[in-house]
Write a structure and sequence with these properties.
By secondary structure, this protein is of the alpha/beta class. It has 15 helices and 11 strands. GO terms for molecular function: catalytic activity.
Length: 376
Amino acid sequence: MGALSGFKVTHLASLGPGPYAAMLLSDMGCEVTIIDRIEPMMVSMPQEVDPRRRGQRSIALDLKSAEGRDIARKLIAQSDVLLEGMRPGVAERLGLGPEDCFPFNPGLVYSRVTGWGQSGHLAMRAGHDINYVALSGALLAMGDLDRPPPVPLNLLGDYAGGGAFAAMGILAALLERQRTGRGQVLDAAIVDGVASLTAATMGMRAAGLWGARGSNLFDGSVPWYRTYRTSDNAFVAVGALEPAFYGALLQGLGLDAVEWSRADKARWPAIAKKLTDVFASQPRDHWQQIFASTDACVSPVLSFDEAVSNPHHRARATYVQIGKVPQPAPAPRLASTSADQIAEPPRPGAHTDMVLRELGLSEPDIANLRAQAYAL
């Protein structure tokens, strides 16, 4: 039984950060019911194999109809959390905004997950992960100085700055509700979350320890914190920040510690070239064996398939297979309240009849909703 068992979440089907927040809550034991749309939704993968939907239920409703909205309100009335990711004002136009829901469920935690937030000049504009990260200053801080900033996976904005912050905010609001009995609106904007993630970098900048792109400790500028190509066209990642770790790196590479001292910054380009040449002389697995029992902080850069089969991950069961899809296991791990067996992601409407029965609808009522295409 998960730590959040007993809490009920309704998710108005959304994209990106919303499904990820729902997954995190479900993984910890929440009963999550997705209100999917009747019409097909543009999604990044088939919904019945989307790991972000795992362990959840789905009811498909036509929220443009009064009948569909009435069912949604019944479900929300029994929920602890409502999660939605539409542009500001859309939920209100559907009659499902905070002011519509609080009268019949004053303890509701109403989580609004968007890119730009509920206010500000860009609130009504479209955007995607790369746009939100770009506006935070984080994107310009990445990559080589002589190239445009690289396109990051949408881990940073959608999931770290969006979904994870939304889930954390929901938990905080639920704890606060225990003291007051009242719910509240949560404005979980990706731009705010990504900005929060830059706290340490901005602190270093204020202290004079972070400068322009291509001149910093964590942006790949220093030879001992970057990736290198190996002879088999694979890569290794090097993070030998501390002096002892750098010494172990040089030892593993067979380089003299005095000759390749990093004390003189003017020597850093020569060190980078030397490390590039040495790493390129052998395949990735060779270097993995060389550094396997050291603290040089050298790791192979793995593909997703390799990550799933990696011995360390296997020992920790970091990845699981649900249905036919290998995917990350629930995280973090709680010692005494581990997650239950996780069900496969549902297709839209897989639990419509079950949910409608729980809401007190009769079989003729359910049949009528389906016949009128108000439910699927």
